[in-house]
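Writing this down once: the sequence line spells out the residues, with the fold written below as integer tokens. This is how one looks:
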Amino acid sequence: MSELSVKHLLGIKYLKEEDIQLIFETADNFKEVINRSIKKVPSLRDITIANIFFENSTRTRLSFELAEKRLSADVVNFSASQSSVKKGETLIDTVSNILSMKVDMVVMRHPNPGAGIFLSKHVEASIINAGDGAHEHPTQALLDSFSIREKLGDVAGKNVVIVGDILHSRVALSNIFALKLQGANVKVCGPRTLLPKYIESLGVGVETNLRKALNWCDVANMLRIQNERLDISYFPTTREYTQQFGVNKALLDSLDKEIVIMHPGPINRGVEITSDVADSKQSIILGQVENGVAIRMAVMYLLASKIK
């Protein structure tokens, strides 16, 4: 397969396994590029990309910006908090105004699920979903799978547990879709109150005992508690959550085998994982950050080839 089957990256659920493999092969090449002394390629020199963030983001926005600059694209940054959105402008008007500046691609984060899908039906530009509410975050799931492949050689057949706030996490949903598509076995682990009722219908197992989950898995992807999305209390105290679902070095060392620790960031150190776990040799958290740039370069490069 030499090109993506989609014009937009709206969610993992719209991709085929061949799309994911093509993105990974392309990212392999870009990873070589970003580790050279000259880190720039002219691949997107004639492409203009708008980063439109209606929600705060530091790591994802910086990662996209860096990827765009490495590809020599022209970049327009737009933050909704300083924009006419506050004055009542609609999403379509905002984006149409930006597109009238002849933008080819839009990277968008939005608090409402489906915002990217809605937009893709109304504008000509290629849309990349950088997170829509608690729905999907496709580039994060791609970089997570890419990091597992890099560390363990393959994703197929691996046991991956996603631990924490599954209910409010777009990272969890995108990861489940991506891992299942590549043939991994997936379980989720967390307080019952933070596990969606429909979760088993996605073909994943549920384990509420963290030690059992960790002994089963090859990889543990530790999610943070999304305090900004918690409208009510889903567990008694943070301390109690940490005692039941936090990973510390003593727990990690007591397992039957050595497992890989991942985290999409930002880390609440001392809550879902302790600092000595985050900084241990079993952690690939910093590798995920580096891989994020390569994956986003690959996605934008492949989508740009479909722009007429």
Remarks:
- The chain has two domains: 12-136+289-304, 138-284.
